[in-house]
Amino acid sequence: MRAEIISVGTELLLGQIVDTNAAYLAQRLAEIGVDVHFKQTVGDNATRVEEALRLAMSRADVVLMTGGLGPTEDDLTVAAVAATLGLELVYDETVADHIRRFFETRGRVPSSTVYKQALVPRGAHVIPNDRGTAPGVHIEHRGRTIFIMPGVPYEMKGMMENYVLPALRDRTGLTVIRSRVLRITGEGESAIEERIKDLLQQTEPTIAPYAKLGEVHLRLTAKGAPEEVDAALARGEAQVRERLGDLVYGIDEQTLEEVVAQALIAKNLTLAVAESCTGGLISYRLTNIPGSSTYFLEGVVAYSNEAKIRDVGVDPTLIATHGAVSAEVAEAMAGAIRRRSGAAVGLGVTGIAGPAGGNPDKPVGLVYLALAGAGGTMHRRLTFGAEAGRQGIRVLAAQAGLNLLRLHLTRA
């Protein structure tokens, strides 16, 4: 079954409101096996609403529309739909009575304009609105199904859960669409795609990559009976993990810092961090997790050379000899913060976030990461392109620092 979503509202096109309704509808439809192939957003203009509906009906079995059901002049969705289908608008006394009672129970008197919402296309089914005054509308027309719901999320969700989904579920049977996201860090999108390019061509599950700053996500999607879908997703995940190994750090909503936190807790280890160019981003991400005091002992932002010496304990001769951005200073930061805090693991990070401060030997984007633990100290040298910008470099450096921690903890 093919579905299309039409969101009505000029405020959506102006960017004043984010269309969370469409995302919710798509997610809920996927769960019952309905494919959403297209989504349109149209302003409060009758002609354009009619054009959008005609287009949707030419390519979808089911059309779900939200918005434009209120009592004001620019609420014209129902009238536009009726005009498109050649249906007369009729006054529904049941809806009018609901509007009266809705206002009476709140000690208010409805204005005459509110009763505009009682006009529905002849032959349509009214979808009750237990959360507001505007009814939804269900129309069957020439082999197409149209559901019209309010744009207010609270009201729309009530209709979707109580009326629309049960109606569609009766048609789709046991078919479901499910997805699983594999989260990857440590390599870029093109390198990941090269490793799994044959898997990207397969179906059941389909695999689609999309890049984020410092990460690549692979969305695996399968459609069918629930047990078949679960098996397909498990098979696809196993194929990806076989190719990518520990580049895969998590699933679905799992964050990198959560994985690090879980590893620290599982191994009963504690951590202290000394940050320079990341400005506390690593500490922020780790302490943003409830219960972080069980594994996170201390975080120091030592931006200046003086702070590295005074607050972390870096030997000033190392800075004088090698520079603040160097492997030697990063290792000294990791070792010193570990000793001073008593943590099992120390992490140090220093680099050049830019836009100034770089030179041919040490360009903007150069970052040194270091880890100190019971087995000694190690470092990594990374270079992020200056085109990432100052904030981008900081985010990438923090991501790399957390990933270094993850790999150290999971491989130990």
From TrEMBL:
**What InterPro entries does the annotation carry?**
CinA, CinA-like_C, CinA_C, CinA_KH, Competence-induced_CinA, MoaB/Mog-like_dom_sf, MoaB/Mog_dom
Give all residue intervals belonging to the MoaB/Mog domain.
4-171
Pfam families on file: CinA (PF02464), CinA_KH (PF18146), MoCF_biosynth (PF00994)
Residues making up the signal peptide according to the UniProt record: none
Protein family membership: Belongs to the CinA family.
**Record NCBIfam families:** cinA_nterm, molyb_syn, PncC_domain, PRK00549.1
Q: What is this protein called?
A: CinA-like protein
